[in-house]
Amino acid sequence: MPPVHPAGTPAAEFGAELTISLMTMGVGKEVWERFGHNAILVEDHARGTATAYNYGMFDFRQHNFLLRFVQGRMLYWMQGFDLGLTLQIYRQANRSVWVQELNLTPAERAALRDFLEWNERPENRFYRYDYYRDNCSTRVRDALDRVLAGRIRAATDTIETGHTYRFHTSRLIASDVPLYTGLLAALGQPADHPLTAWEEMFLPLELRQWMRHVTVVDDSGRVVPLVRSERTLFASTLPAPPAAPPARVPGYLAAGLALGLGLWWLGRRAPASPRARRGFAWLAGGWALVVGFAGALLVCLWAFTDHTVAYRNENLFQANLLLLPLVVLVPAAARGAGWARRPAVALAALVAAGSLAGLALKVLPAFYQHNAEILALAVPANLGLALGVAAVARGFRG
Questions:
Q1: DSSP collapsed to 3 states, 342-375
Q2: Are residues 207 and 79 in the same domain?
Q3: What is each CA distance from 323 to 74, 185, 349, in whole angstroms?
Q4: Are residues 302 and 388 in the same domain?
Q5: Residue 95 to residues 27, 42, 178: CA-CA distances in angstroms?
Q6: Cβ–Cβ contacts within 10 Å for residue 6, how many?
Q7: Pairing of strands 227-234, 97-102
Q8: Which of 118, 117, 145, 139 is nearest to 127 (CA)?
Q9: Is 253 found in the same domain as 210?
Q10: Residues 41, 233: Cα–Cα separation, whole Å
């Protein structure tokens, strides 16, 4: 348990020498920097120290790091760092740093300082990291809420934001199209859970914003804003992250139609043209390999990991595991192998049927996953694959 002050000691004697602030660090250029960061700053004027307590520490050399990462079982830890060193790191990375001084009573300041010092001990510092529900920002939120007896949660957990985990993920990684596509595909139905303001504080910049809406009771019994004052310690020259995800469904649909029409056209020409046969084999086999492998990954994320936001993924209708046998069957059928034609046609038809089923089921309330981009890309491509394989089979039979 965290330490407590000796019984009978007046709380007012503790904490008057402390200033407590929420530090928020802006987004950076690297993928892992695009969600921002934060820390709790404790300035002890009696000791002459300023310590930023940071819950975002991890080590690539951690035992079984890669396996833990894949399984969603990574261990992070909390550690305090000198304010000057912290600022130097973020200045070098060209990431903004903001500080919000908090209106805490002396007793609350002392309680938070003591809790953070207890939490930093080697036996207490580690925790199981979850990217959305238990991360460096939610740990900061929870530490502050703990000393405020739940006032932050009470003020925010009934406010509907109209946002989801997918919404924020999409807007913050939108500039990296391959990563954007991969995460859209990997996130399942739980990523579309409507967020309250309390839940939205998994993002440091959203925590900074919502703290401005919280009020507390000061020493004199008055209700005052939790945020006493704000200042900027370093202003980045990087652009601010977009306020909303980009509208990319038309682009994905154009790519899906081009791919589907290309597969159909090449399949029709393949029996009579060696070049078309090679083109169809490479394009169809490549699509089957990439999307079939993606489907296998989605199954593994759901069945064998703790990444709960990847569960119940409707994209499995599009990234069908039946695509994987087509990696072998389609090139063989395109070369005229009789043994491959019938199973290739049957599997490609099943893939197309599954793809259409995934689209049709969107009319039902139970299928609420926001996967319009994936549907726009995969449905026409899978239909084109089925039509192309059928055309190859007909051409060689004729």
A1: HHHHHHHHHHHHHHHHHHHHHHCCCCCCCCHHHH
A2: yes
A3: 32, 16, 10
A4: yes
A5: 6, 21, 24
A6: 5
A7: antiparallel
A8: 139
A9: no
A10: 13
Tokens of 104: 């805490």
Helices (H) and strands (E) in the chain, counts: 14, 9
Give the C-alpha separation, 295 to 316, whole Å: 6
User: Angle at Cα 358 formed by Cα 355 and Cα 364, nearest 5°?
Assistant: 160
Contact (Cβ atoms closer than 8 angstroms) between residue 359 and residue 318: no
pLDDT of 307-331, one tens digit each? 999 999 999 999 999 999 999 999 9
Q: Which of 181, 208, 234 is the last residue of a domain?
A: 234
The pLDDT assigned to 14 comes to 79
Total domains, the chain: 2
In-domain check, residue 166 = no
Q: Which amino acid is at 236?
A: S
What six digits make up the tokens of 350? 């099943």
Q: What is the pLDDT of residues 114-146, one digit of tens each?
A: 999 999 999 999 999 999 999 999 999 999 999
10-48: b (≥16 Cβ within 10 Å) or e? eeeebbeebbbbbbbbbbbeeeebbbbbbbbbbbeeeee
Residues 195, 304: contact at Cβ < 8 Å? no
Residue 79 forms beta bridges with which residues?
54
Task: At 274, list the tokens.
Answer: 């060696």
- Tokens 């002890």, residue? 44
Domain residue limits at 102? 11-161+196-234
